[in-house]
Amino acid sequence: MARVLIVDDSPTETYKMSTILSKHGYEILTAENGEKGVAAARKELPDVVLMDVVMPGLNGFQATRQLSKDTATSHIPVIIVTTKDQETDRLWGQRQGAKGYLTKPVDGKVLVQTIESVLKA
To answer: Cα(34)–Cα(30) distance, rounded to whole angstroms?
Structure first.
């Protein structure tokens, strides 16, 4: 099954998403901030990245841009998962290279469907 890197500074959110995805057979990798997320993506080359936006240091938009511009990681789809639900945030996320955008709290079915759709694309 696919490997998913969850980049989120909230242990609660990371736990929730990990639990949902583990039940669906996904292998989970985690990072607690943008810098560690970019490093983990470069090292582990996961099949998909779930990226929070509001994090200390390198935020999720900046980390997504780094991953989408790096030839080593540009093939990895990034799905932004955040509390930021304005249309301008969605557009900005897409401009940084995100292939999906979900708002918290995330519905488990929608999360799995979104991952499956970006993996098929």
So the answer is: 11
Tokens of 59: 């935020």
Could you tell me what percent of the chain has a pLDDT over 90?
98
* 121, two tokens: 């694309």
Taking only the tens place, the pLDDT of each residue in 24-50 is 999 999 999 999 999 999 999 999 999
Name the residue among 57, 62, 64 with its Cα closest to residue 79: 64
Rounded to whole angstroms, the Cα distance separating 104 from 75 reads 25
Assigned fold of 3-120 = Rossmann fold (3.40.50)
Residue 45 CB neighbours (<10 A) = 13
> How is residue 12 written in tokens?
């609660």
DSSP state of 94: H
For residue 47, the surrounding DSSP H or E stretch is: none
What residue type is assigned to position 72 of the chain?
A: A
- With b for 16 or more beta-carbon neighbours within 10 A and e for fewer, the 63-84 pattern comes to bbbbbbeeeebeebbbbbbbeb
pTM score, whole prediction: 0.97
